[in-house]
Amino acid sequence: MGKLEGKIALVTGGNSGIGLATARQFVREGAYVFITGRRDAELATAAREIGRNVTGVQGDVANVADLDRLFAQIKREKGKLGLRMPVLPAMRPWALSARSFSIRFSTPT
User: Fold this and answer.
1) CA gap 38, 99 in Å, rounded
2) Domain residues for 23?
3) pLDDT on residue 109
4) How many domains, the chain?
5) Burial of 15 (C-beta count, 10 Å sphere; 0-12/13-18/19+)
6) Average model confidence (pLDDT) for the chain?
7) CATH code (residue 69)
8) Does residue 16 sit within a domain?
9) Which percentage of the chain shows pLDDT scores above 70?
10) Which has more pLDDT, 79 or 92?
11) How high is the pLDDT of residue 100?
12) 98-108 pLDDT, tens per residue?
């Protein structure tokens, strides 16, 4: 049994680089991982490379509507989120609403 067995994780920017490596490791450790990316083709390739226990969700984490859709999908499919790994080149705090700030930075239960 892995250290993350039964956990639900979100890795933003999980379609390449550090995000993809993190998502792979989380799956190896037993987590189910949602990865995000802005480009569908790269996201689909990353999900195929990871192979199992992964869902790719296209979207831009700086877009509040995309975040709402992402968290709604996670809730619908898995019920809750246990781990978050934001991999962002630069965060634009002015793009955050109070609701999305709360969602992004709240402590999971």
Assistant:
1) 22
2) 8-105
3) 43
4) 1
5) buried
6) 83
7) 3.40.50.720
8) yes
9) 76
10) 79
11) 52
12) 555 455 555 45
